Each structure stands twice: as structure tokens, then as C-alpha cells.
Amino acid sequence: MATRGEEDIARTGRRCGGCKVRKPLTDFTGDRSKKDGLSVYCKACMSEHNRRAAERRAARDGRTIKHRATVTAQIAAEYRPFIAGNDTKKDEPEGK
Ligand SMILES: [Zn+2]
What we know:
Elements: H1 6-12, E1 14-15, E2 22-23, E3 28-30, E4 38-42, H2 43-60, H3 71-90
Antiparallel strand pairs: 1-2, 3-4
């Protein structure tokens, strides 16, 4: 059984630990603390995370930050066709 290693991930992207959507590696931020040097969260999730953190700080300070639409959900919807096509072609089982 051939191992699906880094090479495969480089071609097919990886699943985000936040939105659970498979995305190209270019959609992940760097994280030098990780083995492969990439964050487990995509950029959308990272910005969402950062936005919430900023909101919490703002709330603590008695400020308010204007809410944007749920960017993560929008991006997830945009990626769905791409992911579906990919999975069909590659015949790759969805990881757990
Ligand atoms: Zn994500």
C-alpha cells in the first residue's frame, strides 16, 4: 500500500482543522512550530480566529468592532465545487 505522504498533500491540499474544508496549501498560513511548517487552520479560519480575538479584546475594553458576514462559510461554499472535482479525480478517501 503506497503511502500518501507530503507529495500528495502538496498536490491535493489539506483539510483545514477549523472549517474542515480541503484547500490548497497556499491557503494555509505558515507555522514554524508545526512539523510541516504550516498552520492546521486555513487563512480564512485564522483571520476569523483573529477577528474574534480582537472582538474579545475590544469588548473587554468597552469598544465595538463592526461585524462582517461569516467569511468562513462563504469561502467554504466557494471551494465546494473545486473539492468535489478533486476528490472524484483523485479517488482519495476522505480522512478522519
Ligand atoms: Zn479553515
